[in-house]
Design a protein that fits this description.
The protein is an alpha+beta fold and 248 residues long. The chain is 34% helix and 25% strand.
Amino acid sequence: MLKSYALTDIGRRRQLNQDFIYCNESPVGNLPNLFIVADGMGGHKAGDYASGLAVETVVGEAAASFEKNPEKILDHAISKANEILRKKASEDYSLNGMGTTFVAATCIGRFLEVANVGDSRLYVIGGEMRQITVDHSLVEEMVRMGGINREEARNHPDKNIITRAVGAKDDVEVDFFNLELQTGDMVLLCSDGLTNMVDDETICRILKNGSSLRDRVEELVETANLNGGRDNISVIVIEPLADEVEHD
């Protein structure tokens, strides 16, 4: 039996929460469950409109889809969200330039299907903490080209520049990942308001501390705020095979 807990927080510096999360352990159309973190960007209120509309569209499209393949369901739904955001932005000048990151996951038995656009992230925490998604950001490209190292990337002044977003261009390119989970694995979806404020080692320690799922998620958000809370913070933690751990 799968367990999950989700939390979003405005942080310490922002006037508005432009993150939007969706956490549903029940079926959404032919998907057995669905988890989403979207981090919006744009002018006044455009970012929160973008993330909310993108999530609403994807959930609606997934619920209505007759497709069986989860990758195809998510690909079509995210493309539809991109199309709607582009249309809304063209009709309303105040929404011009809006967009959103988008990371989504569905657990199908022992398998995890992941879709990603932008720099919100998905990790799997087992024996170690592994980042599954690849950031679509200028800084990540600099790391891949060997221009800077990981530590320099954490505090780089251009860290907020992303190279892909839902709503940014007429066509959206989505990355997909499929992996088999092991007993005891946890899945973390989060916006960069967490990962810019809390290092991987601390995130991993908090997630493995043995307290309730809710307490662990709340501690992650609290730690991000204690470290400065410079951005909105969104966290979803899933224990896909929780019943197998309990029966061990």
